[in-house]
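re: that chain from earlier
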Amino acid sequence: MSRLLIEPVTPDEPGYIALKAESIALNFNMLRRLEENWQRGENRFNAPGEKLLGAFAYGQLVGVCGLNIDPFSQQVRAGRIRHLYIGERHRRQGIGHQLLVSVITHSGTSFDFLNTHAPSTA
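^ sequence. v structure.
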C-alpha cells in the first residue's frame, strides 16, 4: 500500500465529488448529508474538538472520517464519530483503521467518550 496521508479536509476538496458519487451509487448517503450540512453551515466540524479528516493515497482522496460533539449523549464531553467512508477500491487496506486512530488520538483533549451510530455492517 502507498504511503497514506491523513489531514483535515472539507467537501470542497478535489476528489470529494467522486468519492460522494461512489458512496451514493453503493447506497451510502453519509457523504451527501455531510456536504449538504456543510453547505448550509449546519455542521462545519469547527466546534471545539471537532475535526473532519481525509485519507489521501498517492494524492487522491480515498476516505473521510469526522468527529463532532455528540448532541444525543447524556455524557459530558462525549464525541461522535461521523461519516466514515472509504472508497471501495481502497477497503481492507487499513485506511479506515488509520482514520479512526487519527480521530481517536485527536479526541483525547476534548472528549472522554466517543459514540457512533453506524450499522453493524460498518
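The radius of gyration is 14 Å.
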